[in-house]
């Protein structure tokens, strides 16, 4: 099923456009510390040191370290810049996402023309291009696997497709733990408990095999770096309100939410699971990611990319004003527009600007104020979708492919 993705002229064109639109800026700009951490981790490994113990930033499973090491050696042979080699994986992943969006739209009845236009909205989306090519983050890899899992689930018509879907989801979880939040939303659309068990087993198998070798060596490392890792609170949403409107009440609220926000998120996901059981999978995953990004404690600009693919697939036009709003935010985040006291994300390459940590923390209020419109937009967007879920009659909400595999 997956090899057939490239057997279509429009699909190949979409893939090519997505890759080329990212390749050029990726070559021109070094990228953030997310790019720098990879050659450092590879160098530490080749020196016989543990990159996880030496580099506190590196938090990707060992499998990807091996892949990037192979790419860096290959890039050295053909004399490609290190920063471009590191970005090749996320660039190709973005191409796959655009490609799969096209196929899902075609197979769910959108037609070739609408599917082509819809996939172009992702292929040429400035939010995705900036994160992959300028920032150099790898979030498109787990996102691509999640989209592939959805493609096999939505468009497949044979039992083997549940295997492909679960393995793709498992590879996404192996890359980063966050795609695991989507697992229950696949399971409720499978009728047989036996097949639910098989799906779950196959979905967790890649991450178990990836982390098993180091789990018994350093259990705490696996838990801290791969399972419970999250960005620092206080820079987004409900934990950033205290920076925007400082008071004893908002500060106390933010501190409490930083401690218990994960529990709130789990409750919200469980509630969404029951509300959306008979709704279209793509739309459900779109709302799920909206809720996750809105309620999460920490922040990374890469998380804003997560909302794009399934919004396009489900035909939600809110992704257009969302993309424009985030693009404006990124102009400030990456220093295109300068604001006194706001230190953007450095992407010019090492050595990075020498900014004291105290000065960086002092910019928290301005940074949170810049991010506030995007966060509020996501909240309204999620609320609009949730109201729609409640209004839909259960017998009319299920797409033919929503419940699978007896």
Structural notes for this entry:
The chain has helices at 9-28, 33-46, 51-54, 62-77, 82-107, 112-123, 126-135, 140-155, 160-175, 183-187, 193-215, 219-227, 237-244, 248-275, 281-295, 308-313, 319-333, 357-362, 364-391, 394-397. The protein has 406 residues and is an all-alpha fold. Helix 1 (9-28) runs antiparallel to helix 5. The longest helix is centred in the middle third of the chain and has 28 residues, at 248-275. The protein is globular. The two termini are 21 Å apart.
Question: Would you tell me the structural class of the helices and strands?
Answer: mainly alpha
Broad shape: globular
- Mean pLDDT level: 86
Please provide the ordered H/E string of secondary-structure elements. Answer: HHHHHHHHHHHHHHHHHHHH
Sheet with the most strands, sense and barrel status: none
In quaternary terms, these chains amount to: single chain
The number of distinct structural domains comes to: 3
Care to give the gist of this entry?
Helices cover 69% and strands 0% of the residues. The chain is mainly alpha-helical.
Relevant terms:
mainly alpha; disordered C terminus; 3 domains; 0% strand
């Amino acid at each position: 099923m997956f090899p057939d993705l490239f057997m279509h002229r429009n699909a190949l064109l979409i893939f090519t456009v997505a890759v080329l639109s990212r390749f050029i800026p990726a070559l021109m700009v070094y990228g953030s510390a997310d790019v720098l951490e990879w050659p450092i981790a590879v160098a530490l490994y080749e020196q016989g040191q543990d990159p996880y113990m030496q580099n506190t930033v590196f938090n990707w499973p060992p499998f990807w370290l091996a892949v990037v090491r192979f790419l860096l050696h290959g890039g050295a042979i053909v004399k490609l810049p290190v920063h471009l080699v590191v970005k090749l994986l996320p660039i190709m992943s973005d191409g796959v996402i655009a490609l799969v969006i096209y196929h899902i739209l075609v197979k769910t009845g959108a037609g070739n023309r609408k599917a082509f236009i819809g996939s172009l909205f992702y292929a040429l989306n400035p939010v995705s291009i900036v994160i992959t090519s300028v920032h150099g983050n790898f979030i498109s890899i787990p996102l691509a696997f999640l989209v592939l899992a959805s493609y096999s689930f939505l468009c497949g018509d044979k039992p083997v497709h549940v295997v492909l879907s679960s393995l793709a989801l498992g590879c996404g979880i192996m890359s980063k733990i966050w795609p695991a939040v989507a697992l229950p939303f696949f399971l409720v659309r499978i009728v047989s408990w036996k097949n639910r068990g098989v799906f779950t087993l196959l979905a967790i198998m890649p991450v178990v095999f990836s982390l098993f070798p180091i789990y018994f060596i350093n259990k705490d490392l696996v838990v801290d770096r791969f399972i419970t890792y999250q960005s620092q609170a206080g820079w987004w949403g409900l934990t950033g309100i205290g920076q925007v409107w400082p008071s004893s009440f908002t500060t106390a609220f933010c501190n409490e939410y930083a401690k218990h926000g994960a529990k709130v998120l789990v409750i919200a996901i469980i509630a969404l699971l029951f509300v959306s059981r008979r709704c279209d999978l793509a739309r459900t995953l779109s709302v799920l990611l909206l809720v996750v990004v809105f309620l999460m404690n920490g922040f990374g600009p890469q998380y804003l990319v997560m909302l794009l693919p399934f919004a396009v697939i489900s035909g939600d036009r809110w992704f257009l004003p969302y993309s424009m709003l985030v693009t404006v935010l990124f102009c400030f985040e990456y220093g295109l527009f300068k604001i006194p006291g706001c230190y953007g994300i450095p992407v010019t390459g090492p050595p990075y600007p020498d900014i004291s940590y105290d000065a960086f923390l002092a910019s928290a209020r301005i940074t949170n104020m810049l991010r506030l419109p995007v966060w509020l937009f996501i909240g309204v967007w999620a609320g609009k979708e949730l109201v729609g879920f409640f209004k839909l009659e259960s017998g009319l909400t299920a797409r033919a492919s929503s419940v699978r595999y007896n």
